[in-house]
Amino acid sequence: MISFRASIEQTLGAFVARHTGTEPTLKPSKKAHLASGSFLRTGAKAAAETLAQHVPECTLFGVPLLASVREENGWLLFFFTADAIDAYAKALPPAEEPDESFFSRRLWIMAQHPDAKTPDDPNLLDGFYAALFHAPDGEKRLLCASHRLDGNVRVALEQRLNRAAKILLWERRNEQ
After folding, report:
1. Domain for residue 88, yes or no?
2. Residue 77 backbone dihedrals phi, psi, to 5 degrees
3. In this predicted model, what pLDDT tens digit does every residue of 38-90 receive, in sequence order?
4. Which of 5, 46, 69, 165 could in theory staple to 51 by disulfide, Cβ–Cβ 3.0 to 4.6 A?
C-alpha cells in the first residue's frame, strides 16, 4: 500500500501541474499543511486564485483532499481536510506496538481508542500534517494540539485520534 504522505504528494503535485503547468516543490510549513515556493517568480497569487477555483476537484481515495489554497509572500499554502485521513485509515491493519520512542508510544495509545471520525479541528490537523511531513516540531505540534482545551473536551478530542495515530504509526514503520 502506498504511503499516505506519498499519496498526498502525488495527488497534490498532479493537481497543481494540471491547473498551472508547473510541477510544485512541496515542503512542510509552519503556516500551512504543505507549501510550495515554485511560483515565487511566476505569479503565486494568480496560481493560488486558479487552484482555489478548482479545490473540489482535488480528491484522494474518493474524498476531498484540499480544504483551501492561499498565497502568502510568493508561496502557495495548502490546507487539507480530515476526510482523507479517515478514508486512508480505514484500509490500514490494526496498529502494531511501536518502539520505545515517546511519540510512537503516545500514537500507539491513541490508536487503541475506538475507531472514530477524525475531528475537523484546525490545531489537530496542523499537528497531524506537520508530523506526517516531518515539519520542524511536528510531533510536538500534534501532541499539543488539544492543550488549549479543558478537561473532558480535551480528553474527548484525544480519544478521536485513532485514525490519525494509525496512519502516523504506519508511515513510521514503513520509513524504517
Report:
1. no
2. -110, 125
3. 776 668 899 999 999 999 999 999 999 999 999 998 899 999 999 999 999 98
4. 69
Query: Do 86 and 117 meet the contact criterion of CB atoms below 8 Å apart?
Result: yes
Please check whether residue 14 lies inside any domain of the structure.
yes
Is the same domain home to 167 and 104? Answer: yes
Would the pLDDT of 94 be above 80?
no
In this structure, are residues 163 and 127 in contact, taking their beta carbons and an 8 Å threshold? no
The angle, 0 to 180 degrees and rounded to 10, between the axes of the packed helices 162-175 and 4-20 is 90
- Quote the number of domains for the chain: 2
DSSP string over 85-124:
HHHHHTTSPPPPP--S-HHHHHHHHHHTSPP-PPP--HHH
Confidence of residue 4 (pLDDT cuts 50, 70, 90): very high
